[in-house]
Prior knowledge:
Blueprint: E1 11-16, H1 23-37, E2 41-48, H2 58-61, E3 67-71, H3 73-80, H4 114-134, E4 139-143, H5 147-155, E5 161-165, H6 168-177, H7 190-202, E6 206-209, H8 212-222, E7 229-231, H9 248-261, H10 279-282, E8 295-300, H11 308-321, E9 332-337, H12 348-354, E10 360-364, H13 368-374, E11 380-382, H14 392-399, E12 404-407, E13 425-428, H15 433-445, H16 447-464, H17 467-482
Parallel strand pairs: 1-2, 1-4, 2-3, 4-5, 5-6, 6-7, 8-9, 8-11, 9-10, 11-12, 12-13
Helix pairs in contact: 1-17, 4-5, 5-7, 11-15, 14-16
Amino acid sequence: MVAESEPRKLKIVQSLVFYPRGGSAQVVRYLSRALIDLGHQVHLATGSLSDGDPEHEASRFYGDIPLTMVDYTEAWRGFKEGRNPISPEWDAPFHPSYEDKAGVPDRAFYKVNSDEYAALRRSWEALFQDIKRRFQPDLIHLHHLNHMHLAAAEVYRELPRASQLHGTEIKMLENLANLEEEKLEEAPFRSLWRGIMTEAAQSVKHFFAISPDVRQRGMTEFGLEDQDLTVIPNGVDISLFKPRGWTDTKKLDFLRQILLEQPRGWDESGVAGSVGYSESDLKRFGTASGGLKPLLMFVGRFLDFKRVPLLIEAVADVNARFEMGDEWPPFNLLVWGGMPGEWEGRHPYTVARELGLTNVFFTGWLPHAILSKGLNLADVFVAPSYYEPFGQVFLEAMASGMPVIATRSGGPTSFVLDTGPNANGWFAEVDDVQSLAETLYSALEDGPERSRRGANALELVRKEYSWAGIARHYVAAYRQLIE
């Protein structure tokens, strides 16, 4: 009897146009490593930036994963000199963004003209040609949706190509569709980029969506059929994100380090460290009995859809629900994140100051490895986003043993449960300060329920969201596409 041979190992190109920043870069890094651990070969095509932050350098961020980079450093330096960073003059024009932010090199896609688009595409065709000479893949896995897809289609015409919808590309197109008449001039090349995005979508064989919500919106936006999209959620590094059993003393020492000794919080100056704290501020985390007050925690960028100002307004509302006393207010909020100088709408720190809040603290942006420890500081994770595409950090908080508070929208609705024996968090209504305040108050008032839901959160992530398990789902899908 002849034994069945094991399925052959695959050779995969993972590709991301952005330099390492934000959740999609984490997804690409973890997925690539998990695939390699399963015995497959991966080569990464990615952007990179040497701007003084080593975490933005692809070779450092991705470690020993084989990669080829589009280095945006020269274009970034040109931007600092007042030149156009997406100009065809650069060998590697700076990548655009799905978000419209002022004073940054990555202006919105819909503000990039046809000549600039052609230069962007050429730089990525050159990268793929370079990889092709050294690595012959079975499949191309492209993350997000943009000009990179059309470059890959030109170079790898015969290979199956899949695209991963992370949600931000869909959100941009939805926003363009809803743009009011008087604001149309703010998106001068919206028709160009809607066409490019549509052509990019048509160039791939299959889509992966990170949540059922993203899947449904992708079907609507690009006219896709059921069989065109597979939902595979993001995973969590459960060896890194885990409960650490810290004592109150350990937590205070860690808070002292990130808030007092090495402050990275920032105000409207955009300068990391422009917001700092003193020992008297640190005392507000403690109680008269020597313990710690319940701690809420937000993690993320200060983008409009994250609704951080709304969260801070809700904290002011919750404060008013508690009686004044020596330990008032009886809880704190730790705002972790915000890329220095990047915010949309009202700056969260300014909102907290205007409301006179003494129980809101800002850490600034800190590396992922430090976040994995920092999540052990808190009792409840909260992010009242408006249609969060997936919500990676929710799962990372849950892997740390924390219950979570989300809005009843977007990706978190696929893994957060707010009722029953398996409840692992709470929901508030979208864009509703009072609903969020009531939810926060309920969570803060019931310590045993926080513990129960946190235990359920931890169990769910360990059972269903490890990267090893998620990678096996991708491999099965890859094989179907190749066959």
